[in-house]
Amino acid sequence: MRTALKLTLMSVSLLLAVDAWAQIPSLAKCTRSANLLACVDADGNAYSVNTVGNTIYLRGFERAGKRYWAQTNSRYGQLTFFTGIASDGEAWVGYNRRVGWTTLNRFSSSGGSSAKFTCSRITGC
Question: Is residue 125 one of the residues assigned to a domain?
Fold first, then answer.
């Protein structure tokens, strides 16, 4: 009886796990070299990340908006500044500052968006 109960519980657990796995969205497919990462996701969005010293260059294509974009991040110790521009003319600037396990974030864009928020490794954003 105990064996049958264990097998039943294991079967139910397996079915729940398979069902949960089926609901996970597809991950991006990526190719990597020494300092370049290029990815495409299931929705047709594409991006690349290139690292040169303390500078990170991001480039991408947003399928929904049919726009290309580029962003440059420059890191100085615990402070990272970023600037970006998109093919539709939108531009943005901002920074991230790490303080222990907390990150202070601020950005604004020419499209009228702006935000100031804090993220923690424990509680999230």
Answer: no
Q: In terms of C-beta density within 10 A (0-12 exposed, 13-18 middle, 19 or more buried), how is residue 32 classed? A: exposed
Residue 84 inside a domain? The answer is yes
Between the CA of residue 21 and those of 8, 16, 25, 88, what are the distances in Å?
20, 9, 9, 37
Beta pairing partners, 88: none
Digit-coded pLDDT (tens) for 21-57: 444 567 899 999 988 999 999 999 999 999 999 999 9
Q: How many CA atoms lie within 13 A of 88 on its CB side?
A: 11
- Claim: this prediction has a pTM higher than 0.85: no
Token pair 């260059």 is found at 57
Judge whether 22 lies within some domain. Answer: yes
